[in-house]
Fold:
Amino acid sequence: MDTEYDLIVIGAGSTGENVADRAVQGGLKVVIVEDELVGGECSYWACMPSKALLRSGEALRAAEAVPGAAEAVTGDLDVAAVLKRRDAFTSSWDDTSQVGWLEGAGIDLVRGRGRITAVREVTVLDTDGQERVLRARHAVAVCTGSEATIPDIPGLRDAAPWTSRDATSVKEIPDSLVIIGGGVVGVEMATAFTDLGARVTIISRGRLLETMETIVGDAVVDRLRDRGVQVMLDTRTTSVTRGPAGVTVETDTGETVQATEVLAATGRRARTDDLGLAVVGLTDGDWLEVDDTMRVKGIDWLYGVGDVNHRVLLTHQGKYQARAAGDVIASRAHGTPVDDAPWGIHVATADHDCVPQVVFSDPEAASVGQTSDVAQQAGIRVRVVDTPLGGVAGAALLMDGYEGTARMVVDEDRGVVVGMTFVGPSVSDLLHAATVAVVGEVHLDRLWHAVPSYPTVNEVWLRLLEAYGRPQPTP
Structure:
């Protein structure tokens, strides 16, 4: 194999794959370096296995809520079948097909741990202890992602806690699970393991899903409790001890929780340890600070794309960044014009205030743009409009007793939607229309002419506009 390339990509997750692919399409010679599985976190330990674990329970609940289908439900989930389906989505943690994709895309692969050892130079240590030096004519892109953190709670590390990787790759469902953390991972795993028959406790230092509108956390708490989950809010874990029968978790409220396993779901850190960042004046272990073209600030040949730059820790945003980065690296290599103005093809402008996200909880939550609090803190004159989803004909047809809420956050001075949040069954289906409205800054007067199909849940857009108020004719 060659040792000199136009671009070296460190990390073959979905972000790294997309950077490499776009650069190859732009005419560059590219190599990608990976020390684990090609496909990365999303394919094997995050998005795909977690959603596979969650989908069966969601489908069962949906059937149980529709008369005619409900009568056909004769039992609980088949746990072995759920795990088998999850394994299918991870290819049983075999990356052969992903490696084949790289080959088909014209991207070289070097297995091993890559470290930056000089300007535009990466040294790879393979599993046999052999070193190989790669040099880049134009750029190096760091796409190593993030990893779960273990909080500094007395006894927790010694108790051998699960991280998100352990939870999504589980082979046997424990009788009971205590989850420390009330974010997306904590909430989704509480939902999944409850579906799969475990007795679940979730301990959160604040409310659940704090970065989203309060209507989301409130709805999820109510539903989890209805399903038998012990939800402890505004509670700190003070110690964890593992004994022969499992773990004992102590809290600052004086409550004690006993469980078979404990999952630490309190945050993530950059996977930049031992990356050689000191060579470029940075610190291993730190997040990479980048501009909107994903170029590391102050270093004209180094890029940080995806989770590693800490802009938005979501797979779809990492892939969005990757498309911009791969294209701009190719443009700079060829000396062609760079479109780096806001909303240009070489920038990730949407990372700032237009990020869509789905939480596959029960009920599901979907949001895009700014929450009402964030918008107000940014100095926007905000109006918040809420409407129940259950009153929409499409929701009533979807299932009996449908409950949910839609929230629209309007910039009153510009007359555009800057944030949308939905919470309720299957609300992810509503999200992309909201994303288009926010990204496109579609004026409310024009949204009245975007007619929602009847009878679908999308009719909620009409209800939101009616609650906001009809446009007045121009004098």
In short: The chain has a mean pLDDT of 97. The domain at 363-468 is CATH 3.30.390.30 (Enolase-like; domain 1). The radius of gyration is 24 Å.
